[in-house]
Amino acid sequence: MKLTLTAVALAATLLAPLAHASQDAPTAHEQKALEIYRTAISMRTAEGFGNVPKLANYLAAEFKAAGFDEADIHIKDMGETAALIVRYRGDGSSGKKPILLSAHMDVVDAHPEDWERDPFTLIEEDGYFFGRGTADNKMGITSLTSNFLRLKAEEFVPNRDLIIAFSGDEETGMVTTKALANDFRDLTGAEFVLIADAGGGALAEDGSVLSYNMQAAEKTYVTFEMTVTNPGGHSSRPRSDNAIYDLADALKKIQAYQFPVSSSELTRTFFRKSADQAEGDLGKAMATFAKNPNDAWAVKTLRSYPEYVGTTGTTCVATMLKAGHAENALPQTATATVNCRIFPGAGVENTLNTLKEVVGNPAINWTVTYEPTESPASPLRDDVIGPLTKAVHALHPGVEIVPYMESGGTDGMHFRAAGMDSYGVSGIFMKGSDVYAHGLNERLPVKAFYDALEHWHILLTEIAG
């Protein structure tokens, strides 16, 4: 359907009931959401452009216009970026702490000259919305913002406070995320966190629904540098020891090593529920691992699939090399970068010690490139899964809710590390072939946009109604 924006009064925009996206004309609420989406996409909120505060101020103005008290809207400037906190006050009838709602305003940059369309102009074409951040994560920003506006207009009173916490540098240093989880805890303290930047529905290539995946844990992301030094010398006078050869020997040992199998209630549940969707040996291995994580055949089979090896334990892999200073000189230094995704509870220090033991060369110097954040897995809470199931089944009846552990990194790691259970519960349903986040020509199916709006409306009213 072809959508256009119309200038309508805020009350009229928001009081209309939400309709299904299959209707010929968008509802007033959907139009307002599209306006927010379009505006957010137009702002190049990548690192170095200083536009995150601009987006935060735009959103703050929308909340004020919708009737949110200015005292409940906080913009926290931090260098060139910012965080936004908005509290939707409840009546306290649940007697429970608030629920925090997380998304991020920044994006990975896009160079217009590389794209087929302007990445900072929202374009609808062939059933998709194109633009940088259409999926990651301007959709999350739009879903939460527009539903706060809609619920306010509907005079919805939650039974506990709902708090939006939008970070401004999730794609880079996560400084604003750390501040939201720790420094601004007087504004963001919550019983648990719902994350709009993770989770979501998986579609088969024919469009049929496979499952809904709820993120409940993240592996610890850490990068080590291992450096070999040597006196070097003239290349015409080779010596028995060589920094590059010594480093290569160490890397071959890391390549051959597999970390011990790790599992948790979360990962076993993931494999048990995923087994029916997989075919042949993969499905059998998933089911077997769920019952017995130490089954050698199941472990070997799962670890032969790059998309599942990380769910069976810690992984470490060489990703970069730097060595030598001249083509006619023996290398004085050789450095390799080793990136690890550590299973929750395994520990950064234990992983580094394991790598040192595997390499067996005490002359190698190891450094951590930055301070990693270790976070525990979140428990599978009924008070989250129940409302989430209702929201998912309202649009996709009977779909399985599958909890999973993220091998990448989201804001959730910092909230979990700060003691707040966190769950990725995006409303987006997509095919794997439609995922272009961080890449060229990022896109989101138009239907996914409107369905995600409804997903969040149902989820928020169920979980705090």
Automatic annotation (TrEMBL):
Signal sequence residues: 1-21
Keyword Signal included in the entry's annotation: yes
Pfam families in UniProt: M20_dimer, Peptidase_M20
Stored InterPro entries: ArgE/DapE_CS, Bact_exopeptidase_dim_dom, Pept_M20A, Peptidase_M20, Peptidase_M20_dimer
UniProt keyword list: Hydrolase, Metal-binding, Protease, Signal, Zinc
Residues annotated as domain Peptidase M20 dimerisation: 217-366
Keyword Phosphoprotein: no
GO biological process: proteolysis
Gene3D superfamilies xref list: 1.10.150.900, 3.30.70.360, Zn peptidases
Any GO MF annotation of the entry: metal ion binding
Family the UniProt entry places it in: Belongs to the peptidase M20A family.
Protein name, per record: Acetylornithine deacetylase/Succinyl-diaminopimelate desuccinylase
